[in-house]
Structures are given as C-alpha cells and as structure tokens.
Amino acid sequence: MQKEIDMKCLTYSTASGYRLASVYTFLHKKEKNVQRFSDVVFYQSDTQFVYIFAFGAVVFWGQDSNQSLSFIKSIEQFADEPTTQFEIDEFFYEVGTKTVIDEIGNTIILENDTDAFYKLSLSYALGQSIKLASHEKDLKSTIDKMAFIPRTLAKTGKTSLKRNEIAKKMGELYLQKSSINSNLNVMHTPRVIWDHSEIEPHYHMAADFLDLHSRVESLNMGLTMIQDLLEILEDQLNHKHSSMLEWIIIVLIFVEVVLFIAKDLLKA
C-alpha cells in the first residue's frame, strides 16, 4: 500500500490562478529546492515533487491525497478565486525505459524519477488537462442552465431574460474564453518548456495523449455557440427597444397634433 501511495501522481484544479511571487516567497522559507518561472513554481523534497501553476492547477508526485490537500490549503491565501469543489485526476507511475502514458493501466512510465525538469514537462500537460476538465464542467453547467432559452424562442419567439442578465452572461463567457485561450495557452509550447528543449518532446507526448488541442477547440466552439445565442437575444431586445422608441415618438407626435388642433378649435 505504501508503495502505491509513493508512486501516485495527483492533479488538482483549485483556483482561477495563483500569485506565484507570493507562493515562491512562502515556499522558499520552508523548502530548499524551490524554483520559479513566469508561470510555474516547483520544488523537490526527497521523492516528492510539487508543481504550482499560475493558471490555478497543482500537480503532486509521490504524495497521498491528505498531504496534497493540506498543501493546497496552505497556499490558498495566494490563490485567486479559490474553490473547494476541486477537479481531481490521478495516475500511478513507475520507472521504465521510455516515457509513455498507458491509458489502459492509467499509468505513467518514467525514464527518470529524480529530475524535476523532466517531471515538469509531464506536469505542465497534466495541469492544463485538469484545468480544461474544470472548464468543460463549467460549460456543461452553462449549457444546462441555458437550455430553456432556445426552446422558449422556438415556442414563443421571445425570451424572459433581461438586458443586464444577457450582459452578465456575455461577460462570464468572455472571462472563460480568456482563461482558456490566454492563461492556459494550450495551443503553444509553454515558455519554460521551450527554454528547456530536452524536455519538450515529453510535454508534447503528454499533450497529445490528453488531447489538449482538440479539447480547447471543442470548448471554444461551445462557448461561441452560447455567445451567438446571447447576441441573438441582445439583437431581439435592441429591436424591441427601438420599436418601443418609435411608438413613443408616434404617440408624442399624435399628442402634439391633437393639442395643436384643440388650440385652433378653442381660438375659433
């Protein structure tokens, strides 16, 4: 049992992001082998490796869930929009002759079990994957909540949503798109991976296995469909508002004409 715990890789989506400068300062007081780059802070302690990513994911090698959750709690003060409803994934890992991920056995085969940069290449893809899983869950929830809108439009030709509700939902979509396409940056090789070309093939292997690119495209497609729907609703409300203004103008002109005629009649 202890061996299984030691040979487990746990990944968590814990927040919208981490302030890495503060995380680094906090960890550097307790750990010796702490390193910081623009989008990741990581350290090695004996056989344990921990990677904290700016986009709000944490990856652990060689820790059990209690240790991992305790660590996440300790850095929560440096998190932006932390959540208690973590997305979690786990793999077992073992040492072999070639770096691969075995889908059937849910196992990562490592060529090297001691190099922090080598594990960083895999951890980066694993962190992006668990963060995408969180976005996928949010998208499904959004679609479920908004499923009534097209049905209502099909039946009645109008919606009960107000202008400020539509604006809020469009703002939420923009933030989610920004998080996926800018913060995660899945469609490009991360800078820290690019700067260490010897580990780049391992990152791409893991990214391909985890299907990162097509998942981002699928998320963007879903978000775009929701955005198109909201834009249709916004256009409908704008048209309704314009029609109302036209009727107000017509009524005012009518009132003005009536008053003009009444004034002439009174003079007569």
Structure description:
The structure is a single chain. By secondary structure, this protein is α+β, with helices and mostly antiparallel strands. It folds into 2 domains: 2-113, 2-Layer Sandwich (TATA-Binding Protein); 127-239. It is 58% helix and 18% strand. The chain contains 9 helices and 10 strands. The protein has helices spanning 2-6, 20-28, 65-74, 116-146, 148-156, 163-184, 191-194, 200-209, 212-267; strands spanning 8-13, 17-18, 34-37, 40-45, 48-53, 57-61, 79-80, 87-95, 100-102, 107-110. The strands form 2 sheets. Strands 3-4-5-6-1-8-10-9 form an 8-stranded mixed beta sheet, sandwiched between helices. A hairpin with a 2-residue loop joins strand 3 and strand 4. The longest helix has 56 residues, at 212-267. It starts with a helix and ends with a helix. Residues 1-5 have low confidence and may be disordered.
Question: Can you give me a brief rundown of this structure?
Answer:
The chain is α+β, with helices and mostly antiparallel strands and 268 residues long. The chain is 58% helix and 18% strand.
